[in-house]
Specification:
The protein is an alpha+beta fold. It is about 40% helix and about 30% strand. It is built from six helices and eight strands. An eight-stranded mixed β-sheet has the order 1-7-6-5-2-3-4-8, sandwiched between helices. The relative contact order is 0.25.
Length: about 150
């Protein structure tokens, strides 16, 4: 499967939420910004089903008051922060059950769904998903627990 979606109001958040809602083992998130309460609620509900949720976020952005990482940590999401010496951790991808990849310019924020012009690709191509899994593992090792 390869699918492309665009925002604003192109249905990206509902598509992500649907995939997270079907997750059975894991959801991995690498993001610069994470403020979407809709996607956050889907992650919270995944944790209630004992799905492992791991998030890697840019340290500078996650310290903002509107980031919802602390709220998700209460439900058992594993959160790591990355402090870059130069630049920012600007990835934007989610991997569901190590099989389905969401990646693109779409930030996981409410504005990305309703106001910004963004895109996302949804792929279940094993060779590409594996590359992103390796990158997630690399970033996870670089991160520190919040």
């Amino acid at each position: 499967m390869v699918k492309a979606l665009f925002s604003p109001k192109g249905g990206i958040a509902p598509e992500i939420m649907k995939a997270i809602g079907k997750a059975t083992s894991s959801v991995k998130v690498a993001a610069f910004a994470f403020t979407s309460k809709y996607i956050g609620t889907a992650l919270k509900n995944a944790r209630k089903r004992n799905v492992k949720v791991q998030m890697i976020l840019d340290e500078d952005y996650m310290d903002k008051s509107y980031s919802i990482d602390e709220w998700l940590a209460v439900f058992g999401a594993e959160i790591r922060k990355i402090a870059m010496k130069r630049g920012i951790m600007h990835n934007k991808f989610i991997i569901v059950d190590d099989k389905i990849l969401f990646t693109g310019s779409y930030n996981f924020t409410n504005d990305s769904e309703s106001r910004n012009y963004e895109n996302i690709m949804i792929l279940d191509l094993p060779d590409i998903v594996k590359v992103y899994l390796n990158e997630f593992a690399r970033l996870w090792k670089l991160g520190t627990p919040k």
